[in-house]
Amino acid sequence: GENVEQHPSTLSVQEGDSAVIKCTYSDSASNYFPWYKQELGKRPQLIIDIRSNVGEKKDQRIAVTLNKTAKHFSLHITETQPEDSAVYFCAASKKNFNKFYFGSGTKLNVKP
Amino acid sequence: NAGVMQNPRHLVRRRGQEARLRCSPMKGHSHVYWYRQLPEEGLKFMVYLQKENIIDESGMPKERFSAEFPKEGPSILRIQQVVRGDSAAYFCASARQDEQYFGPGTRLTVT
């Protein structure tokens, strides 16, 4: 089955700096890669996603890149703000209506 | 447009009791997933259901756990004879094509 690994497990940055979180996956059939943000005690919220026919996607301060050959994808947050502090999860799935395999999460702390 | 609903939000059970967790998907979504999250950990897939069908239950423990999604009403995750190790947050998600949207979760505490 699929195995998703996520690094780093914790990340501390100064407000205004950039943050990068990386994930690798093992199953080359995976073709959908969402990123979720989870604040303490809250539900995971979808913040951005990318499909395997695209190499990069951007939404304001958030971008995701995908390297299918190397089987890794990354989340980039620019101009970080204290409200970006949360746990971020990457995930991979194979096709429509299929289960997600989640990474173990990255706790991002943005210091004011 | 209501999002995914889960209830109860918090549930306390003594060891040996049954826990029933309910999930109502977003309007127009007919696919429901259940995930378990232990403290400080990621989400682990448990089961995927469509109306009246279990599609994939490969993440469900073989004993004490069951799930259903009837033609009418919410999806239900049932845990029989709960043990302390069942204490966790249980999230359901409903799907429109690839994207899954999560409910607020049920935090189960077994005393």
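Chain A touches chain B through 23 residues (CB under 8 Å).
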